[in-house]
């Protein structure tokens, strides 16, 4: 009798060992989700900010697309572009990985099985990385709001581009105490390094750039800065869905909000807020 009484127990043990092995095996990026892009080939045809040349990479979620761009020869930035091909309006750079530390021709962007996202020069020099190796990352995704995320198996964000702004905040993006607490202007249209202007969030826990419908019908939208103190500073009230907006600290030190109306083909961008309407601060 004794051996048969033991059987269910040993079955349970082997089942739990099996599920442990299955779990351990799942905590790498599935091979089909890994990628390696090489910065090579023809440049794109459409008009983009800073008069840049660019090469499009696969990751996208309209109107956002990952690209390499350069404004000076052989100095490339990995960046997220906003705007659609259908619209003939300028496409804009709303996030970038490696300001001030460009990569050259044949640089690579690699998302490996270990879950690290790495931008490296052709000779292997690492210019930028998310430092997320072996942290349970299984998935890379560009979200509909332009946040690029590395997710674990439960969907939690192990890394998100929203935590690393340079001069631009998309809707839903924050400046945080203990995180990226400032925006720094670009040096010039041509040169992508830190410029002289910065905006800090002060001693606040966070300040978030937001867009919300004024009423349920959504005839018009608030564009606002939401402070951790509970204060909500309304910057503009466009009479259309303004979810596709960003706040930018410009080369000239001015702060503007650009809103993209994806129902419009020509002139889809509208400057919906300007901090110093007279020009330079
Ligand atoms: C990039 O790599 C290709 C293929 O290996 C090579 O033919 C080309 O010369 C390289 N370009 C540069 C600028 O190094
Ligand atoms: C507003 O625009 C966003 C972004 O295009 C879209 O996801 C959302 O569904 C729109 N809202 C409404 C109410 O149409």
Short description:
By secondary structure, the chain is mainly β. It contains one helix and 21 strands.
Q: Please, could you describe this protein's structure?
A:
- This protein is mostly beta strands and 281 residues long.
- Helices cover 9% and strands 42% of the residues.
- The protein is built from one helix and 21 strands.
- It has a four-stranded antiparallel beta sheet with strand order 1-6-7-8, with no helix packed on it.
- It is globular.
- Mean pLDDT is 90; it is low at 1-6.
- The chain binds 2-acetamido-2-deoxy-beta-D-glucopyranose (2 copies).
- One 2-acetamido-2-deoxy-beta-D-glucopyranose (NAG) binds at residues 144, 218, 241, 243-244, 262.
List the defining traits of the structure above:
disordered N terminus, Bulb-type_lectin_dom_sf, binds 2-acetamido-2-deoxy-beta-D-glucopyranose, signal, 4-stranded antiparallel sheet, globular, 281 residues, 1 helix, single chain, mainly beta
> Largest beta sheet, briefly?
4 strands, antiparallel
First-last Cα distance: 88 Å
Unreliable runs: 1-6
Number of beta strands: 21
Using only C-alpha atoms, the radius of gyration works out to: 22 Å
Put simply, the count of helices is 1
What integer is the average pLDDT?
90
List the helices and strands and how they pair.
Layout: H1 2-26, E1 35-38, E2 53-61, E3 64-72, E4 75-82, E5 92-96, E6 108-111, E7 117-120, E8 126-129, E9 137-142, E10 148-152, E11 157-160, E12 168-170, E13 174-176, E14 182-186, E15 194-200, E16 206-213, E17 221-227, E18 232-236, E19 245-249, E20 255-260, E21 269-274
The protein binds 2-acetamido-2-deoxy-beta-D-glucopyranose (2 copies).
One 2-acetamido-2-deoxy-beta-D-glucopyranose (NAG) binds next to loops.
